[in-house]
Design goal:
With 356 residues, the protein is an alpha/beta fold. The chain is built from eight helices and 14 strands. The protein is globular and about 50 Å long.
């Protein structure tokens, strides 16, 4: 497979997509963003897949964590939403559920009552050293408190997996690894397990893809604003039948930190281009989404976050924003609402696929 930077660039085209049947999943920062996007536009989605992610707005748990707001949200992200120092410091799902209700009442996200009809796949590996399993369990409780029934939630926590999306690729990391590219071989494609839970019985994945990966200009969807910390390009897998006009559904797959196509290490605030990583295309080519999508006329949309490290935006690992680094006002960060720059951009992509 060629490197992601060498694929032909095409505009994101409108397809015959039923946006009422959309869904979203993600790993790590992509899982935190999945929760935010899911709540912001729950009227659009049928469900979400969350791999190693915490509940809505958990980075705002303790404003008194530091004198400066930006520092407080960062500390919350590290020591509440990823690795709580003590059990009492873990996210409080009841409080965050109430915050979600209040956010909906202000019209910043869709009404939370719609979540009662949704399906959820939530996963934590017992060997995960990046996002502690105790945090992911609060995500399940958060959704329960908002009315999602237990029989709609597939919660998996017993597998001794590290911080990763699980694949059956022999070349990927061992199951218990906690290192890039955060793709671990566990003998099954977790992406396919997610889609089968969200959509019900599906045709088995194809062995040979009929369609193509479309590389498109992503900047139009965030208006080229550097504050977005999003890459110039993003990707979508489009089955041949869908490109020929067949009706389709859309699943949004959100990569985690250090998994974007153009991820590079930053050294002293500058990208280390001479030592760039070789795995930036793996999330949209080897995680199994495309094979099952091809068999079921699903389009997989792969938005791309970008590493940024300057005076305006500190996001060197190319994470999705779930603690407020895109905020213009750090005291009142808006990274979780319909108007948040990244959420708005991804939703625009989805609307384009539906013809709007």
């Amino acid at each position: 497979m060629p490197d992601g930077t060498s694929l032909k660039v095409s505009p994101l085209k409108a397809l015959n997509a039923d946006l009422r049947q959309s869904s979203v999943s993600g790993l790590s920062s992509g899982a935190f963003m999945t929760v935010q996007l899911h709540l912001a536009h729950s009227s659009t989605f049928i469900g979400a897949g969350i791999i190693a992610g915490g509940p809505f707005r958990c980075a705002e748990s303790f404003r008194a964590a530091a004198a400066i707001a930006e520092d407080a949200w960062t500390l919350n992200a590290l020591y509440v939403c990823m690795n709580p120092l003590i059990p009492q410091a873990a996210p409080d799902p009841a409080r965050l559920a109430q915050i979600a209700r209040e956010t909906a009442a202000r019209g910043q996200i869709d009404p939370v009552d719609q979540l009662r009809e949704q399906k959820l796949y939530i996963f934590t590996g017992s060997a995960d050293k990046v996002v502690d399993s105790s945090v992911v369990r609060t995500t399940r409780e958060f959704y329960r408190l908002l009315g999602v029934p237990d029989d709609a939630i597939r919660f998996e926590q017993g597998l001794p997996a590290g911080h990763s999306i699980i694949t059956d690729n022999p070349e990927d990391n061992p199951l218990d690894a906690n290192r890039p590219p955060y793709l671990n071989n566990g003998g099954f494609m977790q992406s396919q397990r997610i889609l089968e839970h969200l959509y019900g019985p599906l045709k088995p994945p194809v062995e040979r893809l009929s369609g193509r990966i479309v590389r498109f200009d992503q900047t139009e969807f965030f208006d080229g604003d550097p504050r977005a910390s999003m890459s110039d390009f993003a990707y979508a897998y489009v089955p041949q039948a869908v490109e020929d006009g067949a009706p389709c559904r859309v699943h949004i797959a959100l990569h985690g930190c250090k998994q974007g196509y153009d991820y590079v290490n930053f050294v002293n605030g500058k990208p280390d281009l001479e030592n760039s990583v070789p795995y930036g295309n793996r999330y949209f080519t080897t995680t199994g989404y495309n094979e099952i999508a091809d068999a079921n006329n699903l389009v997989i949309l792969y938005p791309q976050a970008q590493g940024t490290d300057n005076t305006d935006t500190q996001n060197p690992d190319g994470c999705w924003d779930w603690w407020g680094y895109t905020a213009e006002d750090p005291e009142n960060p808006d990274y979780y609402s319909k108007d948040a720059i990244q959420i708005r951009a991804i939703h625009r992509m989805l609307q384009r696929l539906g013809g709007n």
